Amino acid sequence: MVKDPDGDLVRQSQRGNKRAYGELVNRYYEMVYTLAFGVLREREASRDVAQNVFMKVFGEISKFQRNSKFKTWLYRIAVNAAIDEGRKRKPVISLDKTDHADDESGKPMDVVASGPGPRECASQSELREAVAAALAEMSEEHRAVLTLREWQGLSYDEIAEALDISVGTVMSRLFYARKKLAEILGMQHEEYQK
Predict the structure, then answer these.
(1) Is the pLDDT reported for residue 155 higher than 70?
(2) Is residue 191 located within the same domain as residue 125?
């Protein structure tokens, strides 16, 4: 068995302690949601995936053998759920920080606080849109690896364990995802310069 900081909560949850399971949910909800959002790029779908992941884990926690850390097991379930959901839907491009729209067009509202001026805001908005477009062109598997590495900060070994793939596959997917992101952003930058 692996030394796991969540071991006590997992054991209690396996015995049916709902309070202990609630603590695991509180501890990891944001991580699961962020991971799902990194793959799907859509808030509502990411919330649905997070909810479904925790419902699935609740039903299967008694089967968890503790051969890995709970967090790693949870990552694997979350990544697979997000990838499966991504395959079901068309990609939605949105990296805005608000669910509000400034008009009936449904476009995100940019709120300018004291700080960057309109030119900087436009630049940041263009960059967010470009990154979102680049991510939308990648497979769910490549977005998952990129999200786990860049947004979740996992090591190559942790990603390999979470996704049940080799470290070499992690490195290959990450290389491809970063290269694709750079190519798309570079092409858009060249078009902007014309």
Answers:
(1) yes
(2) yes
HSE on the CB side for 153, CA within 13 Å? 1
Question: CA–CA distance from 2 to each of 59, 72, 73, 76, 185 (Å)?
Answer: 22, 11, 12, 16, 42
Residues 21 and 60 in one domain: yes
- For the packed helices 70-88 and 18-40, what is the interaxial angle rounded to 10 degrees? 40
Q: Which tokens sit at 118?
A: 């309109």
CA-based nearest residue to 95, from 148, 155, 154, 147: 147
On whether the CB atoms of residues 75 and 28 are closer than 8 A, the answer is no
44 plus 116 within the same structural domain: no
Residue 151 above 90 pLDDT? no
State how far the Cα of 148 lies from the Cα of 163, in Å rounded to an integer.
10
Total of domains in the chain: 2
Least confident window among 26-35, 45-54, 86-95: 86-95
On the question of pLDDT at 91 being above 70, the answer is: no
| Domain with 74 in it | 1-92
Contact (Cβ atoms closer than 8 angstroms) between residue 34 and residue 82: no
- Token couple for 187: 């092409």
Model pTM?
0.61
